[in-house]
Amino acid sequence: MNKFKKWYSEGTPWLWISASSIALCLVIVIGIVGYISIQAIPHFWPAPIETIQITSKNGVTAEYYGELYAEETVRKKVEENNGNGKSKYKTVIVDSSNYKISNNDFIWIDNSIIDKRQIEKDSVVFERREKGNLYAKLLKIKENDVVLEDSRQTWEELQARIERVAELHEQISEIQKDKIGAINYQQEKIRLHIRYLELKNKITDADSKQAQADNQKLQDEYNILSQELNNLRKELQRDSVTVVTKGIGGETEQVVPVENIVRAYRPNNLSVLGKTGVYFDRLGEYLFDEPREANTEGGVFPAIFGTVMMVLLMTVFVTPFGILAAIYLREYAKQGYLTRLIRIAVVNLAGVPSIVYGVFGLGFFVYVLGEHIDELFFPEALPTPTFGTPGILWSAITLALLTLPVVIVTTEEGLSRIPRALREGSLALGATKSETLWKVILPISTPSMITGLILAIARAAGEVAPLMLVGVVKMAPTLPLDGNFPYLHMERKFMHLGFHIYDVGFQSPNVEAARPLVFATAFLLIVVIILLNIVAIILRNRLREKYKSITG
Which of 20-34, 339-353, 509-523 is modeled with the greatest confidence? Predict the structure, then answer.
């Protein structure tokens, strides 16, 4: 009995409970991340294409090319015996080649009606820019509607033409977004400048003539680029392939323009090394290309860029305000009832739902502050808003308010842990209170400040609800950062990985087909947050080691 009392009085049970809770939290976190990664990582691996032959109960036979997506057990009521439910297996396969007929990416086939399943080495996956994947067999290649000789055996010829089309698409994109985009931007600047002079009653004939001359020069450049663009588009339309697909109606031929093919590969004929090459090719497209097909295909680079840039801007805004507020509360404010009340308010702000911050950001930053900025600095653009509309600036500031309490609390705790002897020693050597603060206290408490930033980054990077009100969009035409002065366009809307998950997972016309992409984007968001935190943690550890000897 005495041993039990001693064991209890020493706090050993609470130690075990705390350790068990931490272990349980770690297991839950690892389990969540592990499940997401298991669902996400294989998404880009080329799956085998099966040829499935079925005979329905009505005696109708059909063949399908498809990728085995999943197998599930369903309960079906049968009439035999006593009518009890009986377990049946239902195979789910992807069949995009039949999309035009059934308007479905998936078909469900009962195992009991499957006559034969086989893997044919010449089955091809055509990843298209529109309408998803096509599963078929290559029949022939055409150039300007002329069939190439022996094209059925020329797999390398098809790959060369796909690479040619990819280069043409890159050239078209460069002309449209970079060159023509820059011309449109310069023309808009000229228009706004003339409008500004008109509002100020300072416009002269010389200004009008100069604007016309500049516009004409830009228009001439545009005409040249437009002609070049038309020539490239004609080159895109040169090649096509004829393929054979299988479905309810038997074998059918389809003509697919090569300009609509992203890549083509034969997964059943690939070695492990070949599948690895396709895997990293698809992964590279996902990380560095732009989305297509309502965000369900292509890449997520604009969303990655928008997420990282928004977090960095948020960090720039929240750091000085959070640190200065903590310094005032800890070092300068009189410790009394009012100070305690402020601290309670700061802590309570951390529990306010994020959507409330979004509503505040929309009402105050966008509709009040943004409109006043437009009236003062951009009157020539009105009634089209510049900052009086949601954008990345207001998103970053809104999330800065959201994470401000975390930075204040952690910074203040860091300041409170500084030994009193350091303050007294600095003052005894003749330093002023400000010198003591800026040269002794703040450098030592820097690791605590960075800890606050780590927590702020972790929360802000995953927030979606407030961003839907103050700046994030499904598809942003341009990035907030480009080659046009002033280069960083804080008024532009942006894409975000969190919103991309919501959009693809809940707003997609075919949620089942988009499910692997949802897991892939969720895993990518976790990786981005981890990388941002690792940078901050490395910086914090270096500073902690630097001042370790001082704090003793």
Answer: 20-34
